[in-house]
Amino acid sequence: MKDKPSLFVQPDFYGVYVLQLQPKPRSFYIGSTPDPVRRLKQHNTQTSGGAYRTKKVDKQPWDMIILCHGFPSHAHPGEDLQDETGGELYSS
User: Fold this and answer.
1) Domain map (residue ranges) of the chain
2) Is there a contact between 49 and 42 (Cβ–Cβ < 8 Å)?
3) Is 20 left (phi over 0), alpha (psi -120 to 50) or beta?
4) How far apart are the C-alpha atoms of 73 and 83, rounded to whole Å?
5) 16, 81 Cβ separation under 8 angstroms
6) Of 56, 61, 73, 91, which residue is 20 to 30 A from 6 by alpha carbon distance?
7) In 1-92, which ranges are continuous DSSP H helix?
8) Are 38 and 11 in contact (CB under 8 A)?
9) Using an 8 Å Cβ cutoff, are 48 and 30 in contact?
10) What own/partner pairs with CB < 8 Å and gap ≥ 24 does 72-76 have?
C-alpha cells in the first residue's frame, strides 16, 4: 500500500515568541507563528487578526522580546519549554 502524500508543507520559518507589555513590564504573552513581523502588528492592532488577550488598547503596545526558531515541526513548537522550576511556559 502506498503512503498518501502529506498535505502539510513545512514553512521555511516557524518560531515561538514572547511578547512583553510596555505599560506593564511584568505582563507577557507567548505564541507561535511563521511570520513574526505580521504577528506583532496583529497583536498591536496595526492589522487584523491579533489574539483576544492583546487586542485591548490598554493592553498595548507589545514588544517581541524573545523569538526561538529551528523547530522540526510547527505542530507543538513550545511544548517542552519550561521555566527554571520545571513549570510549563507554553501550552497550545
Assistant:
1) 15-69
2) yes
3) beta
4) 22
5) yes
6) 91
7) 36-43, 52-55
8) no
9) no
10) 73/10, 74/10, 74/11, 74/14, 74/32, 74/34
The CA-CA-CA angle for residues 51, 17, 80, to 5°, reads 110
Name the pairing type of β-strands 28-33 and 15-21.
Answer: antiparallel
What's the CA gap between 60 and 43, in Å, rounded? 8
pTM (predicted TM-score) = 0.67
The three cell numbers of residue 45 are 492592532
Q: What distances in angstroms separate CA 65 from CA 1, 4, 17, 72, 80, one per listed residue?
A: 48, 40, 8, 22, 19
How buried is 69 (Cβ within 10 angstroms: 0-12 exposed, 13-18 middle, 19+ buried)?
Answer: middle
Q: In this predicted model, what pLDDT tens digit does every residue of 37-90 receive, in sequence order?
A: 999 999 998 888 777 788 776 778 999 999 998 866 555 555 555 566 666 655
